Amino acid sequence: MVKLVSHLHFIMSTDTSSQFNNFSFLAGGGDMGALIRAFDWAATPLGDPQAWSSALRQSVNMLLNTSFPILICWGNEYIQIYNDAFRPINGKTKHPQALGGSAKDTYAEIWDTIGPMFEGVMAGNPVGFPDFLVKMDRNGYLEDCYFDFSYSPIYDDEGTSCGIRVICMETTAKMRAQKELDVVNQQMASTNEELFASNEELTSSNEELAATNEELLQTQELLSQTVQSLTESEQRFRNLVRDADVGIVLLMGREMRVGIVNETYGRLLKRTAAELEGKLLFEMVPAEVEAYFRPLIEEVRTTGKPVYLYDTPYLVYKDGEPVSGYLNVIYQPYVENNGIISGVMALCQDVTAQVEAAERLRLVNQELSAKESRLQMAIAATNLGTWEYNIRNSDLYWSPECRQIYGIGPGKLPTMALFAEHIHPGDRESVEQEIARCIAAGSEGHYNISYRILRFDNDEVRWIKVNGRVYESADGVAERFIGTVLDITELKQAEEQSAKLAAIITSSDDAIISKTLESVITSWNSSAERMFGYSAEDMIGETVNKLIPADRQDEETEILERLRKGERVEHFETKRLTRDGRLIDVSLTISPIKNREGQIIGASKIARDITERKLDESRKNDFIGMVSHELKTPLTSLNAILQVTSAKLKNNPDAFLTGAMERANSQVKKMTSMINGFLNVSRLESGKIVLDRREFDLYELLQEIVAETNLTSSTHSIQVDQCSAIQVNADVDKIASVLTNLVSNAMKYSPKGRPIRVHCEKKEDVVIVSVRDEGMGIPAEDLPHIFDRYFRSENQQTRHISGFGIGLYLSAEIIHRHHGKIWAESESGKGSIFYFSLPLKLKK
After folding, report:
1. Lowest mean pLDDT among 55-69, 88-102, 197-211, 714-728
2. CA atoms of 634 and 425, how far apart (whole Å)
3. Segment 624-631 long-range contacts (CB within 8 Å, at least 24 positions apart)
4. Which entry of 339, 387, 456, 730 is 20 to 30 Å from 672 by CA?
5. The pLDDT value given to residue 16
């Protein structure tokens, strides 16, 4: 039975990542446990125990919590750790120096013998011998020592051999007794030979025979004592198995019948050891347990290689109810004296509590990590700073975000005094009072205040919002003041701007409305109520189509298209419906509303009631039209008289009369042109101008206009750039008037002799016409207004040039009614380019 000791190998019960901290895994272990805990392992190749591998921690924990003599030799240097039961084997010479030292040094006198064994074990080949003789110096002299021992490798989680487990039972006393018994037996044999060889001597030597018999009796007594010692040794082994705090069972043969078993193992199966002894193990466990464990045990029995299982789930039944848990298990081959493997020794430890605790810890850590990540993301997203004030020692901590808000560099240490200096003087007293109040209130002290600070780096005034809470120590004393800080300067500025804007909106005489890109109204000021007759409750949530006449519904679609492109609609004059059904004239200015990412999310509309202005303009246009019409009759008569008079004075020698008549004719032509212009404006704004569209070649029209102008003017050279035929659908007479006006303006504002160039080209779905001159140019401040009615750029150069600002206005209106665009580019002193575009496809 002593041979059984060579097959016992132990592992630690659980994953160190979840249950060990410093030397917590070295609890217990008697004197050696205390000595190991006090040892400076950091000075050895093993290093700080906190960094020990799982396999080493498990092995040391098992070593300290078993009564078997066990030595662990770790790493290539075979650094030694052993328990109280192993200490007598080292004797006075080797203990305690062996602890933490190399086995090569400790067992130098026998290293030639055991060194090769160690190398083989590290290579994965366990060894064991009964009654093995070595000459050891453990008491100051070499002596014969005998041991039953087993050397087995210790594997890490990756299956790599990283140390050696030595389980050793000293048999020196037994072997010495055996030797003495052998001597006695030899003496007995020799004596018998002498007895049989010489009856005479036996007969004549009764005294010697009596002495020999006495010796035999002593030898028999010694033999009886030896047998008793062996019996006691086996009983001690059984007691060790019985009292072990790990489950131990010996499974014999292929049927895996239970041999030796202890109560700890029995409790794992919810049975007593007596109920298990002699029974077939797998008749007493669920089929699924057998399916998993039986092949592993059979592999150990047939190959002789141990199997190690960590945190392995198991299932048993108690009173018909399933009981599950987790085990750490070692299966070792059980080898007879003749070297035949007759069974498997299993060592099991229930680690259910540790595994479940580890899982709970993992989940807690996972949740804490997730919460910390969410907190960090929230802090990063909001630029939220954190701070902590230690009330007892006045230490102040500011996070990097907090330092950024205050403008304090990383090398400067914040203090409460320094912090107080940078509170705005207008807020300092109230802030200090609030801090004192919170600290005095203890755990009831909550801090929520907004105030101004002066940044450390540039004394810039910033608004911050601070939240905090006081925490007390176990003795009820205010200990820490912790909170957050947020820069709200932009928010404060926005609030001020919003307040100003709200005041403007409230007091404005214009209707101010906001809407979504689906035309749904989201705000409606009091002026909108007065202008349209609807209250905010009536209109918010409705669409602006409610205000648009049926014949103008397309306007909203076009406006939204322009807004989505980011364009602004300015001074768009149209008509809108009031609640009582009246049509009013309005001027609309509509701007896109963008979010922080620059996306257009709606529109802001300002509507101005221009009904009275329109009426005034209508009355004025009517008056101008009437006056112009009335002036045309006498002017026509005057023109006729001048033409007749000029004819009669054609050959008159009086040069004065001839010159006077020419100047009179010129003035009448100017007056006629001016009156026609006023009449056209009147007709245009009263809606009496109708477009007579037809297909024509725009390039041909350009050539005709330029040719006629060149015939009547000798002051400028006008050229048309060659371009292909361009068919447009438009009112040819009105487009001709636009071209004539642009060319006339170029001549009027250009010095004599300077060229004027007319150009046209197709571009996508439009044709673009341009008239370029090298004249005086237009000042930048006047350029946006040149197409306004009656606008003239007044300066020293233009004051002698006649005109009323009607031509460009009429040209712009004609082009707009053709769904085209008109614009100009100019630079003072370098000339101007006037453009207009017409669609190639007719818009309905």
Report:
1. 197-211
2. 82
3. 624/678, 624/679, 624/681, 624/682, 625/678, 625/679, 625/682, 625/683, 625/686, 627/678, 628/675, 628/676, 628/678, 628/679, 628/682, 629/679, 631/671, 631/675
4. 730
5. 35
Residue 185: the pLDDT is 66
Structure tokens, 336: 């007879």
CA 837/CA 815 separation, integer angstroms: 8
Pairing of strands 446-454, 461-472: antiparallel
96 preceded by cis ω (within 30°)?
yes
Query: Which pair of structure tokens corresponds to residue 766?
Result: 């439009």
Q: Which of 11-25, 91-105, 119-133, 599-613 has the lowest mean pLDDT?
A: 11-25
Long-range contacts of 533-538 (CB under 8 A, 24+ apart): 533/578, 533/579, 533/580, 534/579, 538/579
Phi, psi of 350 (to 5 degrees): -75, 120
- Residues 458-492: tens digit of each pLDDT: 889 999 999 989 888 878 888 888 988 998 888 88
What is the helix (H) or strand (E) element at residue 263, kind and residue range? helix 263-268
Cα(first)–Cα(last) distance of the chain, in Å?
Answer: 112
Give the H/E segment covering residue 287: helix 287-303
* CB-based contact 133:144 (threshold 8 Å): yes
How far apart are the C-alpha atoms of 124 and 154, rounded to whole Å? 9
Between CA 740 and CA 448 the distance in angstroms is 74
Give the β-pairing of 766-772 and 755-763: antiparallel
Q: What is the pLDDT of residues 788-804, one digit of tens each?
A: 876 766 555 555 454 55
| Among 260, 256, 267, CA closest to 300 | 256
> How many residues can be counted in the chain?
844
**Whole-angstrom distance, CA of residue 81 vs CA of residue 90:** 12
User: Could you tell me which residues come within 8 angstroms of residue 291 by beta carbon, excluding any fewer than 6 positions away?
Assistant: none
Please tell me whether the peptide bond between 126 and the residue prior to it is cis, using omega within 30 degrees of 0: no
Q: Which of 830, 701, 703 is nearest to 772 (CA)?
A: 830
Question: Nearest 5°: phi and psi at 181?
Answer: -65, -40
Question: What is Dmax (Cα atoms) for the chain?
Answer: 206
Q: Is the pLDDT of residue 48 over 60?
A: yes
In angstroms, the CA 107 to CA 718 distance is: 118
Q: Are 569 and 577 in contact (CB under 8 A)?
A: no
Say how far apart CA 388 and CA 468 lie, in whole Å: 9
Number of neighbouring beta carbons within 10 Å of residue 97: 12
- How is residue 1 annotated by DSSP? -
- CA dihedral sign, ordered 626, 628, 629, 634: positive
CB 604 within 8 Å of CB 573: no
| C-alpha 749, offset from chain centre | 64
> What residues have CB less than 8 Å from 441, skipping those under 6 apart?
470
The alpha carbons of the chain give a radius of gyration, in whole angstroms, of: 56
Report d(CA 557, CA 565) in Å as an integer: 13
Residue 563 and residue 569 in contact, taking contact as beta carbons nearer than 8 Å? yes
- The burial class, CB within 10 Å (0-12 / 13-18 / 19+), for 554 is exposed
Instruction: Kindly report the number of other CB atoms within 10 A of residue 768's CB atom.
Output: 16
Q: Which residue has the tokens 């890109």?
A: 517
